[in-house]
Amino acid sequence: MTHRLPWGAMARMAGRRTLFAAPVLVVVTFGVFALAALSPLDPVKAYAGAAGLSSSQADLDQLRVNLGLDQPVIRRWLGWVNAAATGDLGHSTVLRQPVAEVIAERLGWSSLLAATAFVLALTCGTLLGVTAARNPGGWLDRLTSAVTYTLEASPVFWVGLLAIWFFAVHMDVLPAGGLTDLDSDGITTAQVTSHLVLPASVLGISQLPWFFFYVRQGVADALEEDSVRGARARGLNQWTVLLRHALRCGMLPMLTLIGSRVPELITGALLVETVFSWPGIAAATVQAAVSVDFALLAALTVLATAAVLAGNLLSDLLYGLADPRVGFDG
């Protein structure tokens, strides 16, 4: 008997979450403007750069008026929200180009890095978790657990610097950073792939422990269930029992992990992109924060918040599909 997918219930749940997300994003953008206004950094001097050192106070005040920074925070925020509602995200004062262009140029590279790292963490974490759960307390379980505990405690930027020293400097087998070689005439798939290996691996390794622990515990618990024991009693191959029966049950708790890992993935990507000079959103985020670029900060914060909310929604949808008893009432 075949079961139809509950598309209607899924759509209603997605609609409710979208309605909830709208006011959250509005509040988040106001928080960005308010906190940026309290920053001791002066966006006018950041915009003027070296020329600001020799400019008179009158010139700086006029530049402040030209940039609209003399207006109250609430007015600047309302102006940005009204413009953003029409698709105009404003102009970046630090990068001197429309915010939409900044995001369009960099979002693809950040997405490539994050997606590759996520797939790597999910695949390797699942395989290691299943292998460790096969014999709880055995030498392989103790070894993999010790390694993953160490990785979990290691700062991602430190792992990145260590990877650069070993693979790029000491072994000289992978590039240390960037998107292409310095003498390259253009962007090629081969060069992007080679430059992606280190940052994606470091970011993936930083997320791997969470998937490992969830899968290991879930599979170990599933192996004690009567249905899995019955599969063993029927004489099924051990790996068949692990992958087809225990893993299916053990994956349910891990589905909730997907959404909760999005904030950590974004934070880790910012650090990794900075360490490896990857031309993604991270560099723009750092520049926007240091220069108090209101429009760019607000847009990037909305983007990150939307990614977190979308990740949580995806987790709930996947969990509801995997376990119909949960449903889509959230």
Question: TL;DR of this structure?
Answer:
With 330 residues, the protein is mostly helical.
Task: Describe the fold and architecture.
The protein has 330 residues and is an all-alpha fold. It has one domain: Orthogonal Bundle (MetI-like fold), CATH 1.10.3720.10. It contains 13 helices and 2 strands; from the N terminus they run αααααββαααααααα. Helix 1 runs antiparallel to helix 5 (73-85), helix 6 (99-134) runs antiparallel to helix 7 (139-153) and helix 8 packs across helix 11 (238-275). The longest helix is centred in the C-terminal third of the chain and has 38 residues, at 238-275. The radius of gyration is 24 Å and the shape is globular. 32% of the residues are buried. The model has no long low-confidence stretch (mean pLDDT 81).
Percent of residues in helical segments?
over 70%
Principal-axes geometry comes out as globular
CATH superfamily placement = MetI-like
- Kindly report the CATH topology: MetI-like fold
Average residue-wise pLDDT: 81
- Give the helices and strands as they follow along the chain: HHHHHEEHHHHHHHH
Taken as a percent bin, the fraction of beta residues is under 5%
User: How many strand segments?
Assistant: 2
Using the CA coordinates, give the radius of gyration: 24 Å
Uncertain regions: pLDDT < 50 for 5+ in a row? Answer: none
Integer count of domains: 1
CATH structural class = Mainly Alpha
**Widest sheet: strand ordering:** 1-2
Biggest beta sheet attributes: 2 strands, antiparallel
* Helix-strand category: mainly alpha
Total of DSSP H or I helical runs spanning 4+ residues? 13
CATH architecture: Orthogonal Bundle
Distance between termini?
Answer: 27 Å
